[in-house]
Amino acid sequence: MAKTAPDLDATKVDGRASRWDDHKADRREQILRAAVAAVGAHGPEVGVQEIAERAGVPRSVVYRLFKDRADLDEHLRLRILDDLMAHLAPTLTPEGTVRDAIARAVDTYIGWIVANPQLHHFLGMGSASSPARGARSVTDTKTAIGVQIAEMLDSVFGKLGLQTEAAESLAFALVGMVDSSINRWLSRSRRPLSAAELSAYIQQWTWQVLAATAESGGIILVPETQVSDLL
Which domain range does residue 90 map to? Predict the structure, then answer.
């Protein structure tokens, strides 16, 4: 059946709308890439004007595509968190020994932060005009990490005959310890420990907490235990 004139007009409108949506998506991506680069180079204090210049667009275009600076910052946080999790998530797997699993996760997290200190600072602080203490996206990511670790510990505790109800609390205690230790270390103008030393200590503390928890239930763990044997 042939299309009528109104049908053809609607098709043209839909096509133009689709192309405009694609154009806006491309521009948003262009601006977010520029924002990541600008914050990475100059820190959270970087302004919208510099982000626009890096993206090669007028400042007004940024505000047409994002409601305000807070909206831009939230999308930027999500982009940074995606990159962090792309590195970290593959390490939160039951592979190798317990020692290997702890080292893999801690080294990767600290390594990403050392490579991206300004991006990490932005996650915690936000920009000067849009502070982000307790930002929902950051909190949600920490929660997701805690839940993933909790699920693994729940399986381990169940197999070892330990109280599975404690798995989630322990997982979030470990996430909090690691996060607080690293944040304090980063805040020091003269750091008493190198990144490698800090990582080694956090790995040691994590192992000791896990070993002590198992021992409280009459189970002796050794660092060379295969994680897969505990699941």
Answer: 70-230
